[in-house]
Write a structure and sequence with these properties.
Rossmann fold; alpha/beta; five-stranded mixed sheet; globular; Fumarate Reductase Iron-sulfur Protein, Chain B, domain 2; 25 helices
Length: about 425
Amino acid sequence: MAASDLAMFDKPQQKDLDRCVHCGLCLNSCPTYRELGIEMDSPRGRIYQMNQVAQGLAEIGPSYIQHIDLCLACRGCETACPSGVQYGRLVEAARAEIETKIQRPWYQRLGRDLVFRRLLPSPTLLRVAGAILGLGEVTGLQWLIRKSGILKRFGRLEQIEKLAPPVEFPSFFRQYGRNFPAAGERRYRVALLGGCIANISFARLNEATVRVLQKNGCEVVVPDGQTCCGALHVHAGIRDQARKQARQNIDALLAGGFDAIITNAAGCGSTLKEYHELFEHDPDYAERSRQFSRLMKDVTEFLAGIDLVPPTIPIGKTVTYQDSCHLAHGQKIRSQPRKLLKAIPGLTFKEMPGSDICCGSAGIYNVVNNEMAMEILEKKMASVNRTGADVIATANPGCMIQLRAGVCQHGGGQPVRHVIELLDEAYS
């Protein structure tokens, strides 16, 4: 089905809007409403505005765009909602409609084209970008730029630059096309999605994921034809490009005979599990996308659902856990990461107050809405520090980036680790 035919459905559907009864139980779960106390920056207020636009009572203007863009799409309101409103689906559709109805300034169009349509789907360009950034780290150029203070002249660029994750060499792209045998008897055959930026900034996490899966009787395949999942594109309203990448992933992985398709990135996982929503009106991919979504598993979800091989090496640390929004609220996965952490000998688990409140990462939200993201992060770090934990664990690379920035500004030097990295350490 042509992209132009599918674009007509890229707007909030009235049947989804009508599920909201405007009770307001979502308000306290919304980070932006908690910060600002403004009704239009709450889920209920944003749905009201979507309804006005859908019924032709309001236009898609600067005010509407501002309120929709300020949403983190953390989906905490979905957990709080007694009516089952699929708010994530609504806000993503609203952004898609904005994208098709407005003409952005030329510099925004150029930037979005470079990042979303060229860089993220291209392993070659990601490797080049990684090499350039890595060169800046190795030569000390990055340190020199930071010390010079020149970034302070460009608004919040200094704060945004601090969010840049370090480049890890070699990249995980070199593992594409490889099969990793199970350690011992093979119980499962799974595919691992490497992601996009994760291949150059979280390569060691991807490798740890392979090792942990192998340890638990999995033959791990890293399919060569895969690409960026399209989550950042969906969040930004660029659904045509998201569909293009989704088709590539479905074509590359669905016929592989896998017991599961695994991701270690919670933000990616929500979109991957919702590929069927991208293609619900596409007769060519509707059923195939549903099959793909049924196979998708977050790595913590998969491991917690099998007979886990007990880790044997003690980790004498106190660990607290930050729920990734798209894992807890989008995928309804809460107990599984905690189950894995508690399976590690010597590890003391300390629950964090408000662990499922957004840390402010939200894809690229901490870049485009940096001031709000940092205000949310400061409160999150206060909750972290109250636990007295030695280590902060989470299950999403985006959250790891944000929490590392939080440790630098408000923490006590705590390392930020993925749950799988801790499990890998307990196996190694």
